[in-house]
Amino acid sequence: MHLFHFQWIYCRSHIHPGPLLRNPLYTLFLTNLKLAQEDK
To answer: At the top level of its lineage, which domain of life is listed (predicted)?
Structure first.
């Protein structure tokens, strides 16, 4: 629930996905999100 909320806030912020995908921190965020979902 917390992760989904965070993802919603992230999507709601008006940042173009292009630069984000090239951002290592964003890649790390996605990896952590994936790992956390698999952890449940």
So the answer is: Eukaryota
